[in-house]
Design brief:
about 270 residues, mainly beta, Porin, twelve-stranded antiparallel barrel, 5 helices, 12 strands, globular, disordered N terminus
Length: about 270
């Protein structure tokens, strides 16, 4: 008889001079979201050039997840991050993190390339988070709220609210679901989706001012298959939809995008 049980796992982080290294460690979406197991291995991810793009890209990414005392590093909660966290009560953690923030490459998008829209450099953010882990019967859940301020003040800040739940376990196969909502302030939304009059003159796109508000929502599926006691195959699929000014921006070719990832990892 199938029961819901914990499942997945992923990986690491560190600032400026390490930002390039961060770019080589792009998050593998949401592995191991409901487990504290340490993992290390390679993976592949399919993603849009940027949220709102019609161009899709495939990249090689690592699968890493580590929880120590008090240090942690992970990519399991939608962001590649690392830092410190402390357990204040059973299942309740608070912490501070340094996170990788992706940029936007003009060369990855046919739309941006054809209109000479400038790219956005990769970077990092600093912030704090509060996380609650609990079990309702055999079903594990994780509720996370996280605030992130980009180290480049012009890139602004974002707040995430994420809920994950393990829903299936049978033999070596496990699955879970997650949903996330992200809010962005005016600087954050404007840096990716705004178009200044100067940029409008170069690109031919209408000037557009993106204000603060709900940036996107996402829903996804997590899965894992135990190959042996030491090795596991993990993956995720995610549907993400832009909202507000981000969805209305001339830079958004579409409101919805899809992510998919798979990898193999070693328990350490």
């Amino acid at each position: 008889m199938s029961t819901a049980l914990p499942l997945f796992r992923p990986f690491p982080a560190v600032i400026r001079s390490l930002t390039f290294a961060f770019g080589l460690i792009v998050p593998l979406a949401a592995f191991a979201e409901l487990s504290n197991d340490s993992l290390l291995g390679p993976g592949l991810r399919s993603r849009p050039a940027y949220d709102g793009s019609a161009s899709q890209r495939i990249e090689l990414v690592p699968v890493v997840r580590y929880f120590g005392q008090p240090w942690f590093a992970r990519s399991t909660q939608g962001v590649l991050e690392g830092g410190v966290r402390i357990e204040f009560a059973p299942g309740l953690h608070a912490g501070a993190q340094l996170a990788y923030e992706p940029g936007r490459k003009t060369s990855e998008s046919d739309f941006l390339n054809s209109r000479n829209v400038s790219g956005i450099n990769r970077g990092a953010s600093v912030g704090m988070h509060l996380e609650w882990d609990h079990k309702f019967g055999p079903m594990p859940i994780t509720l996370l709220t996280r605030a992130r301020q980009h180290t480049d003040s012009d890139r602004g800040a974002q707040v995430d609210l994420r809920l994950s739940a393990g829903v299936y376990r049978s033999g070596r196969v496990a699955a879970g679901v997650f949903t996330q909502a992200t809010w962005a302030n005016a600087k954050s939304a404007g840096s990716f989706y705004g178009i200044t009059p100067q940029q409008s003159a170069v690109t031919g796109l209408p000037a557009f001012r993106a204000g603060s508000g709900w940036l996107f929502e996402s829903f996804g599926l997590l899965w894992s298959v135990d190959l042996s006691r030491d090795w596991i195959v993990v993956g995720s699929m995610e549907s993400r939809r832009l909202h507000g000014d981000a969805a209305r921006s001339p830079l958004a070719e579409r409101a919805s995008n899809y992510y998919a990832s798979a990898g193999i990892a070693y328990h350490f």
